[in-house]
Specification:
- This protein is mostly helical.
- Among the domains are: 90 residues, Arc Repressor Mutant, subunit A (Orthogonal Bundle); 91 residues, Arc Repressor Mutant, subunit A.
- Helix content is 51%, strand content 3%.
- It has ten helices and two strands; from the N terminus they run αααααββααααα.
- It has a two-stranded antiparallel sheet.
- Helix 3 crosses helix 5.
- It comes from Streptococcus lutetiensis.
- Belongs to the DnaB/DnaD family.
- It holds the Pfam family RepA_N.
- This is DnaD and phage-associated domain protein.
Length: 259
Amino acid sequence: MHINEVKNNAFYQFPQWLLKEEPYKNLGDKAKMMYMLLFDRRTLSIKNKWYDGDGQIYMYFTNEQFMKELNCANGSVVKAKKELAQVGLLKESRQGMNKPNRLYIAGYSKTEFQDVQKLDVGYSKTEFQDVQKLDGINTNNINTNISNNKYINSSLGDSLKRLNWLDEIQMQRIMEYVGIDGMNIDVVQNAIERCADSNIRNFYYLNSILKNWSQKGIKTLEQVTKDDEEHKQAESFKKQSWKSKNDDFVGFGIQGSGY
């Protein structure tokens, strides 16, 4: 394959543990492919802010869409969903009449972060609920390009030990700032340290820091430092400006009282 083919083609991510680890390696091919499609769909969910109050990302994927993508009948889709649900990788939540079900996926239970205590993703074996055949939502695939490997995990080192309040899906979202937005690892580490040091152990707070930096195009620790300095200068200017206006107001009052 030529280098240009690699650059110009989009690829799906397929977790290796689906092929190597128990009980996941015993899943049928359709179930594994279904998980791959949902794994890829996370980026669209993040873009559309499809996550609940607990920060759990959910996806929309109708049976018809699965049938088209997997080139199979509805019965095969239902069977694949049951398989994923039985091993705790898929959970469905009904949203009421004429609304599509929310699909939640869980990650590998034995996290690759070896020096972090096991993360509780909040999923267990659940009773399978079939999906109604619903259309009307534009859920075009957005392909991810994440390099979430052992190098990234180990490079974050001790900082990851302070993130045992994040589940694996939330952790994956944080890692996407490296893989998708191109942030340096030490930038993510800096955000983790700020969040932990302030005792605000909340996914939304950590995500808001990284999202703010991402929107500013910040990718390096030097840019973070510069942004901090600019913020301090701006705050100092605001205080001085307020003090100056307040002094002018007081001075005006004193002059006025002399008449």
